[in-house]
Amino acid sequence: MVLDIIQGCGTTKGCFIAPPNCENSPNLVCTSIFTWTAQNDGIQFFIAGTPTNYAPEENGVPVSDLYYYVAVAFSLDEFMGADTVITCITGNDVSPPTSSSINTNLTKRNQKPGNILVSWNDAFNNYIIFDASDSIIRVGNVGMQNSRIYCNGFWNFSGRKNIRYPERTYDLSSPNMKWHILVARGTANRNTYALNGHSIVDGESFPWTTRDTINLCTRNGCGENFIPYKYLKSAYQAYPLGIVTHKVAVSH
Q1: Computed over its alpha carbons, how large is the radius of gyration of the chain?
Q2: Does the predicted TM-score (pTM) go above 0.85?
Q3: Is 43 helix (H, G, I), strand (E, B) or coil?
Q4: Tens of pLDDT along 206-221?
Q5: Quick check: 18 and 32 in contact, CB under 8 A?
Q6: Is there a contact between 5 and 11 (Cβ–Cβ < 8 Å)?
Q7: Taxonomically, which superkingdom (predicted)?
Q8: How high is the mean pLDDT of the chain?
Q9: Which of 9, 135, 150, 178 could form an S-S bond across to 213 if both were Cys, CB 3.0 to 4.6 Å?
Q10: Can you list the alpha helix ranges (DSSP code H) found in 80-184?
């Protein structure tokens, strides 16, 4: 799977795969994968990651009610906080949740085992923004394959104008922004999609941050005709500013 994914990295698509150089080492497992291509109207993306069993005990959620997530954040610095996030959420079953949902947004989403959601990180919390998810994301495939969570979809640039609080969802088409990519993995409640905090313990479940930045667009346009794609190789596992907890909200 990984060898297929890296075809075209740095030429026809942008890529970030962690741990760095895992694709070339028989002793490393590629735990986090993010690839993208930019078009004038949006970004085609692919996200994948290995599940992590990290779940804070204080949440008291049975393992049977857990899904898994891989979250890719676009950040203006190398720290969690003030980030726009794409989150891929799924489980290893194919049946929809059975408990009642907390709002109509969840009722609609719970008809399938997984989804792609837009959220916003502040310094301490992550908030799922459902109107941004509906307006911006075109969901492709979501599931598990070869012991990896995966999803693909399309981020629609023009969808941002339809959301209630656009200041909490970055304009990824801005030619003035340079993005660090942050990747975190963890568990989610299968009934509400609320995310549990990611691991803050050294180890393979720790979040990754890129040292290098990417641009998706210039003043003339977006994608490979206007800006070279990068294969991000310089990254590290960064200690976050605080334990990032994740909440479900229509808007925040």
Answers
A1: 17
A2: no
A3: strand
A4: 789 999 999 999 988 8
A5: yes
A6: no
A7: Eukaryota
A8: 80
A9: 178
A10: 104-109, 130-136
pLDDT per residue over 52-97, tens digit each? Answer: 765 444 355 556 667 889 999 999 998 878 899 999 998 755 343 3
Q: Residue 78 to residues 7, 82, 119, 237: CA-CA distances in angstroms?
A: 27, 11, 18, 11
Question: How far is 249 from 231, CA to CA, in rounded Å?
Answer: 34
Ramachandran region of residue 98, left (φ > 0), alpha (ψ -120 to 50) or beta? alpha
Q: Hey, where are the domains in the chain?
A: 52-217+236-249
In angstroms, the CA 59 to CA 191 distance is 14
User: Alpha helix (H) ranges present in 38-149?
Assistant: 104-109, 130-136
Q: Which residue has the tokens 């334990």?
A: 243
**Band (238; pLDDT cuts 50, 70, 90):** low
Q: Where are the beta strands (DSSP E) in 56-129?
A: 66-75, 83-90, 114-121, 125-129
DSSP secondary structure of 214-239: B--EETTEESTTTS---EE--EE-PP
Separation between Cα atoms, residue 114 and residue 111, nearest integer Å = 9
Within a 10 A sphere around the Cβ of 97, how many other Cβ atoms? 20
Q: Which amino acid is at 220?
A: N
